[in-house]
Amino acid sequence: MDTTGLRERAEAWRKADPDPETQAELAQVLATSNWADLADRFAQDLEFGTAGLRGVLGAGPNRMNRAVVRRTTAGLARYLKATVPDVTSRGVVVGRDARRLSKELAEDTAAVFIAEGIPAHVFPEPVPTPVTAFAVLHLNAAAAVMVTASHNPPEYNGYKVYWGNGAQIVPPQDVGIADAIAKVEPANQVPLLTPAQGRAKGLWRDLPEDVGNAYLRAILDLRLHRKGSDTLSIVYTAMHGVGGAWAVLALKEAGFPRVTPVAEQQQPDGRFPTVRFPNPEEPGAMDLSLATAERVKADLVLANDPDADRLAVMARDASGKLRLLTGNEVGVILGHYVLTQGTKRSRPHVVTTIVSSTQLGEIARGLDAAYDEVLTGFKWIANRALERTQKEGTQFVFGYEEALGYTVGTATRDKDGVGAALVVADLAAWCEARGTTVLGYLEEIQRRFGLHVGAQRNVTLPGAAGAQTIRAIMEAFRASPPERIGDTRVSAVRDYQRGEGGLPPSNVVAFALEGGGRVTLRPSGTEPKIKYYFEHKETPAPGEPLPQARQRAEARLATLIDAFLALARERGQPA
């Protein structure tokens, strides 16, 4: 290791860092000659991609900090001025969640924009990510930045970019922005204006409550049943995030008076004191929600992640036990509900991702709806919906990804956990009026379209060494794809890196299995993980109790998972 060169780069960064806290942090690392820590902090610049930025808070170019955000914003501002002629009249929306440093990062973002002559429409308080996405369209802004790390642990933060169409950026925008960032001067030389200076020039524009009220009206219009329920009991958790007040108000406005928030998690708190990993999918994250639901005998549990763009759902099964639905199950229920109970459209269009269940496609074909599978990430769903609407006149009605992301209609062009919570409650009230339940409705769908069960396994491999291991695993499966996984034959291999499937190249490999199952593997775009997705399809026998068919399907899925993980270990995954 070239420690002399590393020290020189670190000293140069420290001197240009505008934040005294991260300056001091880096000085301490230098004083202790912690070369491994320094090497990781300076291994690369935090990569700007189609998810924007996301990383651990700390000093250095491979961390999230004020220096990185100021340079990123300067690059974004200059790219916008070069590519969007009216950006200086339309402006850019700036929103933030309630994480550590979110306020400072959002203020720095707005300060750089206004110094570049671009008006900044700033949310003065933390807001859900879908509210920021909504504001782009509502205000006809040229772009938006949302400071958030979504459901990552408390030491993370991030920077998400939306384009003027309301969707997250896609290539070539991300590449153009990254190139512009690379040309930006050191952080302490990036021009800034204070909020007071910006307000005096009419460039810093604090957004009024009217924008949030317009968002609430828009998602209330997404309901199909529209009758609410005085008897349906709902427990809601904000997971220490920013969705709490928004979701509870929306549910009550929609006619659901029996909403019980999880008190310990209702207020924004970037420390996330009751959950280590504030993701509803993680083990233990829903424990307080479950306890609250049993105490009040709730019929339904709705959980947002900290920036409220995702939604988890628990509902009672035939035995009265609360069960956490998978993201695919919620996606299938919502997709079927919208297609069958929504306004009849000549060419309804639904979209999901290549790692989500194939069942939405079967439903769409059965109901004569247009259907697409796109790459992972809601940016692809929103942009594909816009593309087909413009070219073919389809009408987008629903999109989802299995990682608890859903959007109904076009109120927002990103996943919306608050809007989705409202529609799930509306669906539950519709089921209640029909004399059934949410899980009863799911069973109706599965009897008609097949019983699809799925699971995901994530392997965390941090640091540069972990990234190398992930690359090695992906290349090993590409070089030598299995002919069988356990007892199941692989019927087709699709390598999305080669642009197969008619999609942009992406580091994803999928193995289609005989009988309709699928195994897909890809590195995470926001965390140091490799992700494996599994799906098995079972056909219940006529008259067979569905729990019996589900038990058989889950057993076969578990066998498939074990067989694949054994193959992954042979190809370099740590045991």
Automatic annotation (TrEMBL):
Residues 499-538 form the Alpha-D-phosphohexomutase C-terminal domain. It comes from Corallococcus llansteffanensis. Residues 1-18 have a biased composition (Basic and acidic residues). Signal peptide: none annotated. Residues 1-21 are annotated as: Disordered. The lineage of its organism: Bacteria, Pseudomonadati, Myxococcota, Myxococcia, Myxococcales. This is Phospho-sugar mutase. CDD domains: PGM2. GO terms for biological process: carbohydrate metabolic process; purine ribonucleoside salvage. Keywords: Isomerase, Magnesium, Metal-binding, Phosphoprotein.
